Amino acid sequence: MSVGRSVLPPDHQSPHVSRPVGQRSDTCGRHPQGRCDVIARTQRIGLGTVQWGLDYGVTNSNGRTPADEVGRILSRARERSIDTLDTAALYGEAEAILGAHDLDGFNVITKTPRFGHTPITQQDAEALCSTLERSLERLRVESVSGLLVHHADNLISTGGEHLLDALSTLKAGGKVRRIGVSVYTAAQVDSILARFTPDLVQLPVNVFDQRLITDGTLSRLARLGVEIHARSAYLQGLLLTPASQTPDYFSPWRSKLDAWQKACADMGTPPQLAALAFVCDHPEVSRCLIGVQNLAQFESCLCGLDDVRSFDASAFASNDPAFLDPSRWKLA
Ligand SMILES: NC(=O)c1ccc[n+]([C@@H]2O[C@H](COP(=O)([O-])OP(=O)(O)OC[C@H]3O[C@@H](n4cnc5c(N)ncnc54)[C@H](OP(=O)(O)O)[C@@H]3O)[C@@H](O)[C@H]2O)c1
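^ thats the input. predicted complex w/ NAP below
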């Protein structure tokens, strides 16, 4: 590990300092004569890294992103004041690929291994700590901005307190600045909050998956001061794919996917911008994580994002886990 490459970050800006829905990045409406204290949508984007380390994604036919392309994406992120990188020990080579680049100034968040058994034991807690050491080595940093429990059920199940103790110890020792958890459901959030108040929670939000917005989970976390990172704004790229080009599995939802594409066309807004604007315009969301395979995709997510007009997405909301949860997709 190289000395002095800590990515201990400046404090994130408050998730609550954000633009009210429907307003542009430079004015808030209450201060129409000048700039006000709002954060542009682009600065609230973070980069996911799973497709940099694994062949992954229902719409990804190109395989892993080459390391030099990752470098170009990171340079562009730095230019646009995008400061958050989300990775995981389980994302194949992603940590090592990040570690081959200059990470100064980025807030790197990584995750714990998956424990496929219960009860969780003290040995598992030790494995969590040694996996973090390995992550720090691969990332070539001395500390990370965040460590999330990758599988929330590990923390919730019997013995989960061993993992929580390990997280707290790592935080106290300065190897990890914030501790938290990656979740899929409100029930997981309820169980986690019964155990502790995380610094950071990552959860899915997109125009089709508004479940954690409408059931009050986002507001509840925000009220507790938990920083919220939203993932899956593109639902693995489905929101960007013409319905007719989606795998047969998605045929029950093709009319919904068509309606989304048509609404974007009617607004004159590319779906990759509309999908991000929807997530970013929720003031509880501090960072909206996106996965990009290459620089061109990244540019297409940023160019014009701050100028997109907000819109009502309530008609697109679904409660169907077979559509919203990629782990349930049955693809040939
Ligand atoms: N055409 C364009 O212009 C364009 C632009 C931008 C993005 N895209 C495409 O959009 C896709 C990204 O969509 P998104 O940002 O909404 O992210 P996403 O793929 O919906 O969500 C990313 C998260 O999905 C989880 N995940 C689910 N199944 C997984 C698996 N089999 N392996 C690993 N991780 C899995 C991971 O979280 P866990 O770690 O919790 O499992 C990962 O962090 C990419 O394929 C990208 O190429 C296209």
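Residues 1-37 have pLDDT under 50 and may be disordered.
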